[in-house]
Every structure is written in C-alpha cells, then in structure tokens.
Structure prediction request, 98 residues.
Amino acid sequence: MNFVNLEIDQITNRRGFSPEECFLNKMKPYLSLCPKGTSYPWLSLVVEMATMDLTGEVVRLRAELEKVSAERDMLLCEVSNLRRELELSELKQLQDDR
Prediction:
C-alpha cells in the first residue's frame, strides 16, 4: 500500500466509508439518472486513476520539497557565514580601537 492509499484509507476509515463509497456519495445525483440495478464497473478504474494522479502529485511535491529544502539549507549556511564575517569584522574593529 502506498502513501497516498494509506492517507485515503485513514480519511475514509475515520468516516466509515471506502474510497469507492465516498466517490459514489459524490456521484449520487448523476448515478440516480441511470436505470435501477446498473453496476458501475468503471468505478474502480476511476478511483484507481484518481489514486494514480494523487500519487504522481505526491511524488512531484516531494521532489519540489527536496529542492526547496536544499535551497533553504544553502541559504542558512550563507547566513551563518555572513554572521561569522560580521563577528570577525566587529572583533577586528574592537582590536583597532584599543
């Protein structure tokens, strides 16, 4: 079970609905137009496609998060180096004042 399915399961289990039931609840107004006793074999395909889309989005967002985290780390190092330079210049200025 992948990360997205786990999150979907956690959300739906809290409410007591499966992903298919959640989808059916949203589709009820449209499904009521179909004849009684109609099965919905396409439903699992739709849920699977939505899961694949969400999985792809999670992968893309994780890659973006990695880039942003690397940039943040670089900026933190730069700030640290600038602070160190400032402290050294202040120490040098104190020594010159003596």
